[in-house]
Write a structure and sequence with these properties.
Blueprint (H helix, E strand, L loop, with lengths): L6 E5 L4 H12 L3 E6 L10 E5 L5 H15 L4 E4 L14 H29 L2 E6 L14 H20 L5 E8 L12 H5 L10 H13 L7 E4 L8
Helix pairs in contact: 1-6, 2-3, 3-4
């Protein structure tokens, strides 16, 4: 199939990594279904925007249903939407827990289940989830229990999906970033955050976009957790 006919879903698509992914997929000729809670309609006829919270199953199902109705298929799903709440473990509230579980796990489950059901019909597809290197390399001074609980679950689910669907033409991979320079990190924190990585800089949005595009084109790669973290997971 030509890339011009391929269709990608990107969640968390209104800014940061998600917006970078939408642009990169369009630059490659993909048609894109872009979702976030507050995403605005696009002037590009090959971008379908669907606003809403993927923790709501009806929203996740609508993303896939409207995407198939407009473009006819789903080839790639990028689970980019996520919440990171940095608090000491005992300071987490029930609301913090519910919000992280809702987007990071329930949202993943809802949209991935709906997308994979469509991929099964065509006998091909690819799921990429954005997780975090903090799962396997926690950092002193960066409290991350809820991130590890939820994103660690996505790493494990990625491997399970990869094996369950390997013979059905559907691949599953994850990109595990270090700290990426996005609007969520104020400039005054950049020095501290850069020092968390052995390469002594923060990651750029383009670093993650390049990793996702690599995985999407790498037909013999499935079940991979690709660390894009400036050496953070390798050690200090």
């Amino acid at each position: 199939m030509s890339i011009a006919n391929k269709v990608a879903i990107v969640t968390g698509a209104s800014q940061g990594i998600g917006a970078g992914l939408v642009k990169a997929f369009r630059d490659r000729g993909y048609r894109v279904i872009a979702n976030s809670r507050s995403i605005k309609p696009s002037n590009d006829p090959d971008i379908l925007t669907v606003a809403g919270d993927i923790a709501d199953r009806a929203v996740a199902e609508r993303i896939v249903r409207e995407g198939v109705a407009k473009f006819g298929r789903i080839d790639t799903l990028v689970n980019n939407a996520g919440i990171f709440t940095a608090k000491p473990f005992t300071a987490f509230t029930a609301e913090d827990y519910a919000a992280n579980i809702g987007v990071n796990l329930t949202g993943f489950f809802n949209i991935t289940q709906a997308a994979v059901a469509e991929m099964e019909k065509q006998g091909s597809g690819h799921v990429v989830s954005i997780t975090t290197s903090l799962v396997d390399h926690p950092v002193d001074g960066v409290p991350s229990v809820l991130a590890s609980l939820t994103k660690g679950g996505l790493n494990a689910a990625t491997k399970s999906l990869a094996i369950e669907y390997a013979k059905r033409g559907i691949r599953a991979n994850a990109v595990s970033p270090g700290v990426i320079k996005t609007p969520m990190h104020p400039p005054e924190t950049h020095g501290f955050l850069a020092a968390l990585h052995p390469v002594a800089r923060m990651g750029e949005i383009s670093d993650i976009v390049d990793a996702v595009l690599y995985l999407d084109s790498a037909g013999f790669v499935t079940g991979e957790i690709l660390h894009v973290d400036g050496g953070q997971s390798a050690g200090h």
